[in-house]
Specification:
It is built from twelve helices and twelve strands. Helix 5 crosses helix 11. It is elongated. About 40% of the residues are buried.
Length: about 300
């Protein structure tokens, strides 16, 4: 028997199979599986990358949403984002539901508008606060797909000499105002390019008060906010018109910390809400009054 083993060993060595000859049945390499590797088959992307228990969240088991305070209509109602009323509150809860969170699992936190898109770590999963998607902001934060296409509008007093203008050029000599850090302020600078430096305010409320006190000739805000201010907040005011679109449409997006993988799942949620008509229903319910503003040439 031992002689046969020596002969077999010599034959194995001659054929270059020595590595296999040294293996006992228990030591043999496992056969290559034809099924996906465990690193793929067991990964969230293979199972469901957007399952609730696999989501990358600021606080485990909770969806933390940021917005500014005060929270203005028609985006929110009664300065209370958590009540589900107002366009952006309704959108936020609709997205949350798509991700698997009921109302009790949603937490709201106050985030000043200007700090929302500043670089660095965020204390929320996403922020919803009429934040336009811009190239500069995308350098330091991430955005979801747009959930609302918006235009900028001009409000003035009915007895103002600018109350009946029909073109952007007619606003060149006006003293205009807008909230700091907004695309409304960008529109003043880049679209109107007025001869007088625009007034910059901490928030929309300050700009509104400046218009009411005639510290500015007109203010610029997004169109839905303009309709609300004229209807409910300002006496003797009117919407002069809305700016013509410049290149790609301006869209509001949900804002995330740079690199947050939750963006992918939120985009899926927005896609579902768009395709099933829910996003349009929310728009019709809370922004039905938007429309009819003249287009400035």
């Amino acid at each position: 028997m031992h002689g046969r083993v020596r002969v077999l060993s010599a034959l194995v060595a001659a054929l270059g199979l020595g590595g296999l000859a040294a293996c006992s049945p228990a030591d043999k390499p496992a056969a290559q599986s034809s099924s996906p590797s465990s690193s793929t088959a067991g990964s969230p992307s293979a199972a469901n990358e957007c399952a609730k228990d696999t989501l990358h969240l600021f606080a485990p088991g909770k969806l933390t949403i940021g917005t500014d305070k005060p929270a203005y209509e028609p985006w929110f109602k009664d300065n209370n984002p958590s009540n589900g009323q107002g366009f952006e509150s309704a959108v936020a809860y609709a997205v949350a539901q798509q991700l698997g969170f009921d109302r009790t699992a949603v937490t709201w936190t106050t985030v000043p508008f200007n700090s929302s898109y500043a670089p660095g770590a965020k204390k929320f999963d996403f922020d919803i606060n009429q934040i336009s998607i811009t190239t500069d902001r995308q350098k330091v934060v991430d955005f979801s797909d747009g959930y609302y296409t918006v235009t900028q509008a001009v409000i003035t007093q009915k007895n103002s000499k600018f109350a009946n203008v029909t073109s952007v050029a007619d606003l060149k000599t006006a003293k205009l105002g807008a909230q700091v850090g907004t695309t409304s302020l960008d529109a003043i600078k880049n679209v109107v390019a007025p001869s007088t430096k625009p007034a910059v305010f901490n928030d929309t409320n300050d700009a509104k008060n400046a218009l009411a006190n005639k510290q500015v000739d007109a203010m610029v805000v997004d169109l839905p906010t303009a309709f609300f201010l004229v209807a409910a907040e300002l006496d003797n005011a009117k919407i002069v018109g809305q700016f013509p679109s410049q290149g790609s449409p301006e869209k509001f997006g949900l804002l995330f910390q740079k690199g947050n993988p939750l963006v992918t799942c939120v985009n899926k949620a927005i896609g579902t809400l768009t395709s099933n008509g829910e996003l349009q229903k929310i728009t019709n319910q809370w922004l039905a009054q938007v429309g009819g503003a003249p287009n400035l040439t």
